[in-house]
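Sanity check record (used in CI):
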Amino acid sequence: MFLNCHSFHSLRYGTLSVKELVRQAEELGIKELVLTDINTVTAIYDFKKECEDAGIKPIAGIEVRKENKLLYIAVAKEFSGIGEVNKILTAYNCDGAELSEIASEFKNVFVIYPIENIPETLKQNEFIGIREEELNLLIRPEFKDKIHKMVILQPVTFSTKKEYNLHRILRAIEQNTLLSKLSDEDICRKSEYLRSEINLIKSFEHYPEIIKNTKKILSECSFEFTYKERGSTENKNKKYYLGSQEEDIELLTKLAYEGLEKRYSSHDEVARKRVKKELKVIGELKFSAYFLITWDIVQYSNRMGFMHVGRGSGANSIVSYCLGITDICPIELDLYFERFLNLNRTSPPDFDLDWSWQNRDAILEYIFDKYGKEYVAFCGTNVQFKYRSIFREVGKAFGLPKEELDILATKSVGEHHSDKIVKQVYEYGKLLEKFPNQRSMHACGILISEEPITTYTALEMPPKGFPIAQFDMNVAEDIGLEKFDILSQRGLGTINDTVQLIKKNRGIEVDIRNTSISKNEALCNEYLAVGKTIGCFYIESPAMRGLLRRLKCDNYRILVAASSIIRPGVAQSGMMREYIFRHNHPNQFEYFHPVFEKNLKETYGIMVYQEDVIKIAQYFGGLTHADGDILRRAMSGKERSIQKLNEVKANFFESCKKQGHSDQMTAEAFRQIESFAGYSFCKAHSASYAVESYQSLYLKVYYPLEFMVSVINNQGGFYRTEVYIHEARMSGAIVQNPCVNTSEFQTILKEKEIYLGFMVLQSLETKIAQLISEERDNNGDYKSLEDFIRRIPIGIETIQILIFIGAFRFTGKQKNELLIEARLLLINFKPENRNLMLIEEPVQDYKLPELKREKFEDAFDELEIIGFPTTYSPFDLLETKYRGSVFVKDLLKFHKKQVKMLAYLISRKHVPTKKGAMFFGTWIDVNGDYFDTAHFPDSLKEYDFQGGGCYLLLGTVEVDYHFPTITIHKMAKMAMIPDPRYAYDEQKKYDALRLVREDVSMTSRKPYPQAHEIGLPRQKF
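Expected output for DNA-directed DNA polymerase:
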């Protein structure tokens, strides 16, 4: 009897989760239920499962609404009916088609109109929905002759009075209005909840025809749909790249052997055997099309001259290496093909493909064009209400002022006021946790379907981007649509841009894809070993640079291990610390068990990669390949990792007993396994990252200026632009502020001079910034400030920014003089006369009194406009002339000794400990060299960070495996000189100092265990 149920996937409308809706129906003994969320099918696949578990017949539908108006309810007779409605909603969402108030000619859909929107004639499949409270209207003549086409309409939106209030709050959030201003049209009726069918039918007992029609719809509808079966490799992805399975296998085999000739010598029997073995598995699992589609995308990328990285478990496959999808030789690194693909695996393997953030859209457009917009979509994702947005949005609905909303959103609950309204905001806000708030685009998952995508879902078009499905990747996987991961990153943009810049500036072609130059370069290895990697992909963070130094990482293989060791799972388990110890003291430990020695010798008996976990599970624990595959999924962090892990835990312990292992030994082995769930890399992934890290390092070592310019233009990585400019200067660059006659929108390099781009000017509009260089390229250099004003549509505020940053220094005039000239030029200037002025006489040359500027005024201008000084260093702006007693170059000599240093703060990272928050700081001394500090909770109580700037530090040096860190006891922020531009204004003298920045990264993970808590055995059990 319930033809119109909403879940909370009717965004900002329904209040019931699918689980709760079905649970309530089961309690009331309801045997059929129709889910009709508003303009979406997000929940129908989960709904079907929940209903079948509860013994309820599921029926799928969609409530079609245009803004606030209910047009009709579409109930699918069979699954294809959902596709019919999906097409209409997709046309509305993506193509701007109008939503007709009258339903289309549906073949497999029942249509139910509300009494407010009855068409003149009803088709055979169309009915009118009558609510109980509308029955008294049926005595009217216009309705009497339509009773034979009526059904019971008992919508379901909420279940309690409190949820009804929550519904009203959701509607106020949706309408961006106050609760008190909601109209009846904005909200559902108070009768929209589940009730017993007996009572509902009793209300309609005088209209048996209406009851009969309702039952007829319920009996004639079904939701037959095949989910992906466990153990089956059948899926709903595009089946064939060519026309058939045979043609696909033939093409894949041909391409694989052609690639084998290029990648290896024709006599390499090991490689040939592995290719043959892999092709057999790929063929048996019918995954040829998946490989070929990926290969096709990469071929297009190569034709366009784009650089890509194929990473993830895909790099375990020699076939993907031969096809050019990946650049990692699986034989060289002994990569485990079974981690990627095995006969127990039913889902297609994952190829994670990265492009530069500048090229990714071109790749996506190719995929949509090549495989057809009807068959391709992004996976969706449900964005939930978050803590801050909940209190802000709910508070706004209650009419709280902005100041109070800011307090609610930014402060902890303990700091909130406790008046009646705030209590209600908190009470209803808590109910909204985990509610979906909006649908968004999955970061990288693309679906390429055999059937049109609208067969399964309506599509939506986000403000920027490509069409998205209305369900997430978990539902997509359940129903058999497996995603392709098309990602973007700035690291590749940096590499790409550097290679192009080297070619443009030096005429040198660097083949960065040639893996022989990015694996074993003596000078690169020297940089690695001392952590000289700022700007390099994945290896520039303070933690990573510290790890490289502790390992004296001087080759590619150790870099591969380091890329995985730094991951939270390895560090959390204590295995990172243990790896460092064993790497530096290879003779001071024994292997835990012979299986660990045989399988993990390369990593000193420590599980570092996901493959290590699977090897130990199989060879130490005796688990089956199927259980090993469950472990693989747990390792990947997909779905519910810990839950997946627990599925195999009992099998592991039982199997270990049969192997003759003691309970103590088994518990220790499983503890190590468990710590990995969801937080480790497979070895191939680490290897892919290591290749890209080494490529960027190679460019940094041999072409440092081109590299740093590219890092700046790709908006850096871990650090702010200031740090990369400092790094360029340390490499010999002369850094110039933007100049209207030289600079471009992006930063450029002229021999050793780096001209900062207009993009670094925080308040300059992008449009104006790009126009300055375009106009100069078209019509020649600017001759004067006046010439510039005539040619560029610009106001006094923007002119001031350019004057104060020194962009008109080519005129030889001082900034003060230029400012007066600009104001005189613009005083009577009308924009509509700009082109006329071009043929007029120049304005008279004003004679101005000499206006002197203080030495450091430029530095404060720069601080205000770009966020940091460029003509002076931060040390130059200190009141004190003291520069520290010890410098970074000598730190290794001061192990366990107290030192006093003066340093500029670069970044700090928050780290949770059992005693409270601590921080790791990264600094530079006056010579520009980097060093790191540790600030423990007791020290921070008295000597906390006071924002960006220079500090006097007192601490003890601890050299941990070649890497010095200073444990800080005391620190004080050093005073800077007052701003000379405001010498006579006491209030503004120190304003600019608040603009000095620092990078702060926070983390919410649990504290890592201490060495004594880990107790990782260093001897045989």
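The chain has a mean pLDDT of 89. If this sentence no longer matches the regenerated tokens, the check is flagged for review.
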